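All the exercises in this workshop are built on plain-text protein records. An example says more than a description, so a record of this kind follows:
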Amino acid sequence: MTDTLHMLTKNKPIPIKLASKMFGIDFWKSFINDDVSGGKVMTLKSPVTGAGFKVTPWLDKEKKHLVGFLIKINVPACVVGNNAFLHVLVYESAKLALMLLKEHFKSNGVSPKYLNMINLKHAVIKYLELTYLLKCDDIDDAMLKRNELEARINAIYHYIATKYRNHQGEGYDRTVYLDLRNHPFVRAYIKWHDIKENKKYGLYDGADYLGEDIKEKIYALSQSGLRIELGVSEAYLEKHHPGMSRVMAWKDKAKSDDVIGKVFESFRSMLRLNDNLRHNKHRPNDLAKFDQKTQDFLKIYYAGEAGPYLEGLTKNQRYELKKKILNVARIDPSIPPSKHKQLTHMKWCNQPPAPKLLKKHREIWPYVFNMENMPMFYENIKQAGLKLNIK
């Protein structure tokens, strides 16, 4: 699954006055002459867990017709009450998000005829976060791997502003970020307890739906893992995976798995893990194996004097020298020696399989966001919706 899904449903244009009556929304007129993309944002609650999600009525450019609904949601929080263990199930998440929106309208008396106009046939993904759970020995091992990742990010991208390679928190709570244009957005952290101070859409993320005993068991397992969340936009999907911004395209498991794998490979490429960059300084006997020009440059490089030397070269000369040194010595001259030594191999950073819990953890099975539990999630939403309608 994705922790975060921004999905835009699309329907035939409906005049806003008519749409107001159909869906029981009474604020359309204030947006007729506005320059916003849609109507007023609605903060809704999951009838199952109480977690919040946002819905924005989407208008055409003239602000005269309703053309869809933009849903921003953390689906596991809305159907499980926790997102510690999950599988990447984009299409199924979209189905659940749509069900939750329809249950809201249904509980407010919207006709089934109008509800059927809201579907996934032409829905598009505006933003999506794919979650990868890397298994570790324990929480300390997870922290070491997260620190290794952060050090590598700071070494390779030492030249960009820190706001694009930021971090928040300390110790086990530290979260590492990397935000590069035209690349997946990166977030890495350890899921080991509720984060009550971070509210989503004005509501807690749904963790309070679970009892303390089951949460303790969930976090006792999830803390032994590093969580990598990779965010991709509609534009990114269309550029690198044409057609995959359409929700319906994710029904195809082969295509879905292909994109999930390639997004993780893009993350590895951002870290330059396939470049086999060296982190140990060359010893004298290693240097002696290179030609004299390479030896001379590496001596300058390790002395911290490569900057002025490189500035004296033309752009083409710098490119050729960098390519040669990278190929023969596994050193990127644009990365200072003090940073280069932080580039450990990170052999652990490969796409992980979906989490599978052993039978001894069967008590936690109902709280895993996976295909096996989908029928239960659908039924829970229906039953919660029935209770709302009775009220």
About this structure: Residues 154 and 160 are 9 Å apart (CA to CA). The chain has 14 helices and ten strands. The two ends are 32 Å apart (CA to CA). Residues 31-37, 197-204 have pLDDT under 50 and may be disordered.
